[in-house]
Amino acid sequence: MPTKLEVKKVFNKGIYTENPVLIQVVGICSALAVTNRMMNSLIMGIALTFVTAFTSLTVSTLKSHTPKHIRMMIQVLIISSYVIIVDIFLKAYMPEMSAALGPYVGLIITNCIIMGRAEGFALSNAPTISFLDGIGVGVGYTIVLMAISLVRELFGFGTIFNIAIMPEGFTSWTFMVMPPSAFFILACITWFANNQIIKKNKEGVEKK
Amino acid sequence: MKKSFAYPVLYMIIITITFITVLASFNYFTIDRIVFNEENDLRHKILYVFDILPEGEDPQEIEEIFNERVIEKQFDDNPGYALMEGNDEVSYAIRFEGSGLWGSIIGYLGLNDDFTQIIGIEFITQSETPGLGGRISEEPYKEQYRDIELDTTEGKYLVSTPDGNVDAIAGATSTSVAVVNILNENLVDFFESAEVD
């Protein structure tokens, strides 16, 4: 079992110091595509967290039996299986969400975060901690998506989670609804986050 | 790690079979629900065209009303639906199709029994910009298509001019123009091929 400190470290890395979107800059295609509504981002984040966590768990469990040269095939097989499960689940129980996310659920398979964690973490760590690492990274991804979609939905539709926030007569910013706006917002958030982390690192050095 | 040739092959086969079994059984247990959802989506849309959606939009209720009052009807080669009132057909939903700004737009247009009025519209497939052209699927736009008299005195059935019968969506001119053009073309074709007056 992983110690408390290890768990804390894994979550801290996934959400903050090594955030997949902001610091590693992986998996940003979907971060740009599904962020015009907060609900879409939330479901997408949960789906990705589920897939990453269970893929890491499975890869880590099987790692001592898996021949090295076919490990990528195995990983892709595992990832796609979980993605198909998510896709079927959404179609069966949340058909509206499935329609809203469209092809992006299937495209989770190609999300670099999942294979990155499988290769970079799960292959050299125990199953439980790999599972938690998957959740941590997934949460990190979800938070960034929610932050982008908060800005986009608020200005693009005047709503948050479909609840009207802006006063009546508010002219919605068409630009926010279209994909290019996500580039600008993501860049601003990345800029801010990197500045924070650099500042923190400096402080750490000075204290020593 | 084992160096034999057979081991990786066997391993891959076992893993593949395991995962396929899991997926197949998951699919097997949800397939009925998925099919129902898809059919319900279409039923919901057809009832919307006829403006007889039950309150609460309960899937079971929608299915009941649909089975009771709506029948499939071919107009020449155009598939469509007819709404029954007792034994009489009181209105029709005809399929239309054409190209929008980004992709095909497919939907159903409701007409009254003597084809003089448009009674409703619903889109089945459209891939217009979400939040802009995509808003053709939202109520305020679709509700404009209730009770429009069909006359061709201006050369077209539907027009989006200031004195026209359908308002365009601000910021989505291409989509709005496309929808009106698709409907006009489809209506002309429909009246020609189906030979109804």
Task: Explain what this protein looks like in three dimensions.
The complex is a heterodimer of chains A (208) and B (197). Chain A is mainly α. Chain A contains 9 helices and 2 strands; from the N terminus they run H-H-H-H-H-H-H-E-E-H-H. The radius of gyration of chain A is 18 Å and the shape is globular. By secondary structure, chain B is α+β, with helices and mostly antiparallel strands. Chain B has a domain of 123 residues. Chain B contains 4 helices and 6 strands. In chain B, strands 1-2-3-4-5-6 form a 6-stranded antiparallel sheet. In chain B, helix 1 crosses helix 2. The longest helix of chain B has 45 residues. At the A-B interface, helix 4 of A face helix 1 of B.
Which pair has the most extensive contact?
Answer: A-B, 27 and 24 residues
Beta-strand fraction estimate of chain A: under 5%
Total strands of chain A: the figure is 2
The main pleated sheet of chain A reads as:
2 strands, antiparallel
Give the neighbour order of strands across the main sheet of chain A: 1-2
Q: Please provide the count of β strands of chain B.
A: 6
Largest sheet of chain B: 6 strands, antiparallel
- What structural category characterises the helix and strand content of chain B? alpha+beta
Radius of gyration of chain A, rounded?
Answer: 18 Å
Coarse shape of chain A: globular
* Cross-sheet strand order for the largest sheet of chain B: 1-2-3-4-5-6
The class by helix and strand makeup of chain A works out as mainly alpha
Topology order of chain A in helix (H) and strand (E) letters = HHHHHHHEEHH
Low-confidence stretches of chain B: none
